[in-house]
Amino acid sequence: MIRIAFYGRVSTEDQQDPESSRAWQLARAHALTDAHGEIVTEYFDIGHSRSIPWKRRTQAALLLTALREPGRGFDAVVIGEPHRAFYGNQYSLVHPVFEHYGVVLWVPEVGGPIDPASEAHDLIMSVFGGMSKGERNRIKIRVRTAMAAQAKTEGRFLGGRPPYGYHIADAGPHPNPAKAADGKRLHVLEPDPVTSPVVARIFREYAAGKGLYAIAEGLTGDGVLSPSAHDPARNPHRTGIAWSKPALRAILTNPRYTGRQVWNRQRKDEVLLDVEDVALGYETRMRWNDPDVWIYSAGVVHQALVDDDTFAQVQARYAAKKLDPSGPREPKRTRHPYQLRGRMRCGICQRRMQGSWNNGKAHYRCVYPDQYALANHVKHPRSVYVREELIVPHLDRWLARAFTPPQLPDTIAALTAAQNDGTDLGRDADLAQARRTIIDCDAKLERYRLALEAGTDPTLVARWTAKVNTERAATQARLRTTTGRRRMTALEISDMVAAAGDIVAVIADTDASDKAEIYTQLGLELTYEPGDNRVIAEAKPLPIMYEGECPRGDSNHYPTAGHPLR
User: Fold this and answer.
1) What are the tens digits of pLDDT across the range 356-369?
2) Rounded to two decimals, what is the model's pTM?
């Protein structure tokens, strides 16, 4: 009997139950392979778009890693649905890896195992990849066109977070009979009794001539909660400590406060991760569209918080602030070579420091209080500066010492000890956390059932339940594949250290503009502590330095070394 691994994928969590999707894909796989072997393990990706390459999907990356293990426990892999597994040219990039390690790939549409020498099989799989890509593109075009029409002609609220000053209210049953039968309803923006007066105050004060910082100081001083503090559950990544200038800008430039629905303010662009290695695929970036392509509803569709004249006056003043007497300000074209870009954090607030070019030299600064009101007496200097040239020489010497031949045994020992201390504990902690998550999900589902019986809006309960079921299914999938992690072997650690040593050896002769990439490969994280006038350096070498063939896609626990640079 052949030992077989199953691979499947689901990404549309809002429309499909991951557990149901896994069930029917697994059923197709069993129908194809049960007469020939037994499925002994599963790899099922949840929440990954089909356009993401296999190396960047969590479970697919684990499967690729398992292929090269002599004791992997399976001899073949069956795909439940090729449209979900392969996109574009992914099959041509992945199948040679299967062939190299002697693992046969089974696909229902081929009727069994793929023959690497068959041109017909290769053509069929290439067609499926093209169909998968075409299907995704057609869906994107159809959805965007429909949403544009609904926003413009109907003024429909199309989902997402309501702007500060509004909350979401029920607007009746969904116009699609099938969706209405499922309990889906339309929604509309409705003024929030607590925050809508704040929005009106912000527009009024700015139109009267107050600056952003003065408005922020006044709001914070009066005890008015900032947007992130008013709704901390929706903003867990923010401190909510005070009103900030970016928060005010977002409010003052939002035309939805005039009562009109506005759509297409932002777009999702897919950008190549590496133009030199197209196989790594794309990442999605949110970018602002020009105002002339924003789509406005034909009329007022929800209660306005600001009248049109006030909004126009505010926009005119805001635009004038961005202009100098000679006309529009041109963007800066010169790019300075910051060697530590993205590596430096402020030791006071832990925010990433910004690059600043002063007197012909690179600096890093944190101007946290410049963006947030100080009415609550934030204990942070107005600005924290550190000069790059005071850090880099000490950093390079520290790295060079760590990777010199006399120091290599200690470096390898430190990495090994860090790994042994954390790997099993990390796995046990993850397993315990997963089990706690499932228990919490079950408790939430029971509370939602009781809330429904008590008369809570069925639409809200359905939305809560769908979210918890998705989280529970994803956690169950992780529990099924807990055997994927492993410790790095001594040879792998030595290879990693050797690779890092090769990189360190060229630092001294490297151009400043190229050093940032080397520091990234070494996984450097720096924290500047202005009180002690020191920098804490932490090095976490990236796995790609020693896993050039098939990087793992999950969150591996690589060892870390941290030391102060004085």
Assistant:
1) 888 888 899 888 77
2) 0.56
